Amino acid sequence: MPIRSRKSVVAVVLFGSGLALAACGGSAAHVVGSGATRPTPVTASTTTTVPATPATSAPASVPGATTTTVAPVGTAALNQLNTDLGSVDDSLGQANNDLNNAKGDQ
Amino acid sequence: MTIRTMSTRLGAAIAASTLVLAVPAVALAAPGGTTTLATTTPTVAATATGTASNPRCTPAVFAAAQQDVEAALASRSATLTSLAADVRAAGALTAADRATITATLQSTTAGIQQLTAQVPTATTCPELRVDATSMVQTYRVFAVVAPQTHLAIVADKEAAVEALATGDEPGIQRLITTAQQSGKDVAAAQAAFADFRSQVAAAQAASNGVDATVLSQTASSYPGSSPVLVDARNSLQTADTDLHAAKGDLSTIVSALG
What we know:
The structure holds 2 protein chains of 2 kinds.
Chain A: H1 3-25, H2 28-32, H3 57-60, H4 66-100
Chain B: H1 3-28, H2 62-89, H3 95-118, H4 125-137, H5 141-181, H6 187-207, H7 210-215, H8 225-257
Helix pairs in contact in B: 1-2, 2-3, 2-4, 2-5, 3-4, 3-5, 5-6, 5-8, 6-8
């Protein structure tokens, strides 16, 4: 294999690794996981169990990525919390509706 | 057609509409001109005190009263179907709570279905009164079953969010520490994180045990169940407010470290 081709392969592999790490970064469980078993999430989108990894370990294998992964990671956790609280608010609204319309049983 | 003819027909139409509306109203009216608490309560339903309202159910209005009770049963069946769907969709429900709610919904649905089959066969007001009273007092679909189901779902969803947030705390602290070690000013993030932990802890305190409290209520608990359920709602609302504040803190942390 020519040297140029080998360089291309290495570049592709590194790029692929970067994508994989970025994908891992999209999971709140990966980003801020403490290693403990996580409780059942509120939404279906969070039901995938991903082995927890300290936030600093992933960037360590990709030089230069440390400062760029913090925000996406935090954003993912924030988005998850936002989604879950939206679900809570919906159910709370239903409960309020029940309590305000219970006169049919009185 | 003359104007006078049109007026006559219009008057007749209005009179007919009034008559149609008046029949159920008469059937619903309590004796002595007193007003029952719920206009949707069928002819022979009980009052809030649990005492039969003894409404007028005469042979003349029996058919309308019977239809009213059938409609009230259909409304309860629809509510129970909707509640069962909500329970199936609530992934955060604990196994124990799900089992309790499912058992309640199944037994209540069976009872309402039995009454639904029974009411059309009633031929007298006393028979209809017994069925309607059972529909309300035995099952309390609207006053107990529906709110307790939704409140238990809320309680378990909040517990799941609180557990996730608590589990995230070590990771958030690591993010702040890492940023600090790289020379970033993390004062705002650290302060927000302290409040995040405080808000999550407050939410846990507010919502803890609410699921058990609401699921311990039964139809026979009514009317004492009402203030219990309202208190539960208030606790869960407090926890919800705390969790939204925690979300705000996390947003601050993300902005500060980004």
